[in-house]
Design brief:
This protein is an alpha/beta fold. It folds into two domains: about 230 residues, Aldolase class I (TIM Barrel, Alpha-Beta Barrel), CATH 3.20.20.70; about 80 residues, no CATH class. The chain is about 40% helix and about 15% strand. It has 15 helices and eleven strands. The strands form two sheets. Strands 1-9-8-6-5-4-3-2 form an eight-stranded parallel β-sheet. Strand 10 and strand 11 form a beta hairpin. Helix 3 runs parallel beside helix 15, helix 4 packs parallel to helix 5 and helix 9 crosses helix 15. The longest helix is centred in the C-terminal third of the chain and has 18 residues. The chain starts with a helix and ends with a helix.
Length: about 325
Amino acid sequence: MNLSSILVNNRICEILGIEHPIIQGGLAYVGNGRLAAAVSEGGGFGQIGSAGRTPEGFEEEILIARQLTKKPLGVNIPIRGYEDTDKYLEIVNKHKRLIQGVSLGGGNPQPLIPQLKAMGLKSLVMTSTVKQAQKVEQIGADIVICEGYEAGGNNGAAELTTLVLVQQVAASVSIPVVAAGGISNGKAMVAVMILGAEGVQMGTRFVATTECEAHENYKNLIVQAKDDDTIIMSRYIGGPRRVLKNDFALRTQAIERETPSVEEILPLLKGGHNKRAAIEGDIENGFMGGGQVSGLIEDVISAEQVVKQVMNEAGNIFRKSNCN
């Protein structure tokens, strides 16, 4: 293992045409065009998120991002049902010359990957188990993103952590593996690459950036967070969802624990509650995705600076360890 083979001659970089194997997560409601452009300008792979946006709003953010950078860009599309997904795929197809790849998650990607290939786009698929990773390789995904239970937002029901998931997925597939969950700095990047990943995806770290459209209250909550300031707000109804700890999330958690009812829980998981906190800044009466890594984030800086800091730290660690 050496610095050259891991960080320079890198399959993630080759596939996506980027300088550094750092991918920005889709980030519901706050994965905006300005943020994606800044990540790409830093040498990573910025993505415009469709979650929480109308198709028209999604298209607008793609155009904003492309005005701000000439470097490779991607988009993120949660699979929520074919009719809904198709509207966003139409936008992707319309602007396929402006983007290089599409990340998919939250459903079965099998019907979508051939469509992306026909558009000439790369497919990155989120997984949370070895079986899922093997399946997405079989159906033609270019990159598999394995996300551990530390990650913010929707989590896999198997509750596998990044530490064990990356090792098993890397040993089970031949396509390049991206690690997600619990990563915000060069130390974590080096760790998962030693375990077999060829790149990283970061979400919470990119929320706490100047270009992200998240409300300042949201960003400040991340910066102020301690190690135990995230919780799984829902587990059995609506699926596991890791969020920053606040009154709303604690109330929702208590309802599921004490009087588990679909009728009571599902309304609390609707996107409007996410938007209220993440965009409008009412951080006690809505929820905000946040990974356990929040306790390691100490400042709000530019997304371009985040990419460069992570890469500099990772490179220094490899050199000091005589791995190069």
